[in-house]
Design brief:
The protein is of the alpha/beta class and 254 residues long. It has a single domain (4-147, 168-196, 245-252), classed as Vaccinia Virus protein VP39 (Rossmann fold), CATH 3.40.50. Helices cover 43% and strands 24% of the residues. It has twelve helices and seven strands. Residues 9-13 have low confidence and may be disordered.
Length: 254
Amino acid sequence: MATHHDNVKKQFGEQADAYLTSKVHAQGPDLEYLETFLSSYSDAQLLDMGCGAGHVSFIAAKYVKQVTAYDLSDEMLSVVALTAESRGFSNISVKQGYAECPPFADNQFDIVVSRYSAHHWHDVGKSIRELHRIIKPNGKLIIMDVVSPGHPVLDIWLQTIEAMRDTSHVRDYTPGEWLTFLTEAGFSIDNIKRHRLTLSFDTWVKRMRTPEPLIDAIRLYQETAANDTKAYFELQTDGSFTTDMMIIETTKLI
């Protein structure tokens, strides 16, 4: 019987190259923020948690001493390793494993960054506690992910289309849920930034190879949404929509 981790590996392993070239993943104000943030951490050991096709790793490698790209998908890690070699980054290494049990030593990393990954994790609370373990005292954890609105109607709408599009989706957490996960694990919140992310429907479903019956179901669900839901997500006639993205910068308390 397939597990959730099996679904994640299947969904992303077969589409690794698509994520390397995806505009949503290869650019954005969150990556611009990261470049500015990392410019003063030249001696840092950084973990790219749930690295995907490695966009965080490639930016980080320009500034920090060493980058570890960590992901569940071997195919994604192969893309990262080959791309790092082609771009001349000798300070990127790759490691395969689960978010809930990262195979790293206590207090190993100065910085951990996770971008567009946590909404696939099977147990976010456990994963965040593990990240606290492997980050050095006063080290940094930066989470970059889609977040859900706090309103139940909007939350259900977003989770439903996400799950129909991608069987490996677990949850886009609300900002409040994220603050709870992080503070309960022992992180202090240093900075929070929010921006809106527009998703082109065609590339959004093609990237996950969503089956046609589910694409039809998503479109029907969009068409029958309440007007205030359509307005919040800026739903367009072609199915494209806009959602919330959040950057949360934290420090590990001693």
